[in-house]
Specification:
Elements: E1 15-20, H1 27-36, E2 40-43, H2 44-52, H3 59-66, H4 79-88, H5 90-117, E3 122-126, E4 142-147, H6 150-161, H7 165-174, H8 178-183, E5 187-190, H9 196-209
Parallel strand pairs: 1-3, 1-4, 2-3, 4-5
Helix pairs in contact: 1-9, 2-5, 4-5
């Protein structure tokens, strides 16, 4: 394990493991499997979705910034319309992130503090944008990257979400490359051709090695 991340673990009782990977890599599945083996799972994507659900903390600011057309009939963010806008206009992505990211950061901090207070020894922070941000390295004790071939990512997302390959490729292009993610990793789990049982066995090994 790389030593650059480990100093912060001496200041607290829990081990903070950043789990990341590109879209369709299986990183959220792996983080959830860690939770089966004693870890706390702090899911940044789920917390982000909560801010843009009906009544979410980001809705008023999104309405003010982008207009009523980007809020659906149920009062939630119109994800399809917003996805089209941010891929067409990079500045729109920045405006959206400026609203959502601080709220998600606060939610992550609260969830992490709750896990620590409950006595969890391993906290798996499921962070899709870990390597895109300079915020996280000093706050984590180690980084685990779930990796797979780009063709596997595209097929998984197509089956899961019904997105066309071109749409998935656009999302992937906005994320860190596989090489950048792997360079930041203390562990890499290569999730191509693994069964769910094999992936869970790897998660159990990681959880046990970190004292969950």
């Amino acid at each position: 394990m790389a030593t650059a991340h480990t100093a912060s673990s001496q200041k607290r009782h829990s081990f903070h493991l950043g789990v990341t990977g590109g879209i369709g890599s299986g990183k959220s599945t792996f983080a959830a499997l860690l939770a089966r083996h004693g870890a706390a799972h702090v899911d940044a994507d789920a917390l982000s979705r909560a801010t843009t659900a009906a009544g979410g903390s980001a809705i008023a600011a999104i309405r003010a910034q982008f207009g009523d057309d980007f809020i659906d009939a149920g009062g939630a963010l119109d994800r399809e319309r917003m996805r089209a806008l941010v891929f067409a206009e990079p500045l729109a992505r920045n405006r959206l992130q400026a609203i959502i990211h601080p709220l998600v950061g606060e939610a992550i901090a609260r969830a992490t503090a709750q896990a620590e207070h409950s006595g969890k020894r391993l906290i798996a922070l499921d962070l899709p944008l870990l390597t895109e941000s300079s915020h996280w390295p000093a706050r984590l004790d180690a980084v685990l990257v779930v990796d797979c071939q780009e063709s596997t990512q595209i097929e998984r997302v197509r089956v899961r979400s019904g997105l066309q390959p071109q749409a998935v490729e656009a999302i992937m292009a906005a994320q860190s490359s596989r090489a950048v993610r792997c360079m930041a990793a203390d562990w890499v789990v290569y999730n191509d051709g693994l069964s769910l049982q094999q992936l869970e066995a790897l998660a159990a090994q990681v959880a046990t090695s970190l004292g969950a």
